[in-house]
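User: Here's a chain of 87 residues. Predict its fold as tokens.
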Amino acid sequence: MVTPDRWLRECHGLQTRLGKCQEFKAAQSNEYPVGHVGIIWIRGTAMFESGEASVRLDWDIANTRPMLSNVQVEQADNVISIPGFSG
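Assistant: Prediction complete.
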């Protein structure tokens, strides 16, 4: 499991590298509400200060409130995944 400090450090590094997200357009989503596991992932295109990128966001919906559990960004040939799991 990724610690909150590591998550915040890696997200800050991603924002430093890409710049702020200006826009996100969802293109595809899917939901896996299996038993106690509840996952929704959303794919789309984001416009960052550094340019356009493909983004995947995985949300854990099995708890009392949704929690972002994975961020994957593809820009050019570079793939960045936090916390390092691409699903």
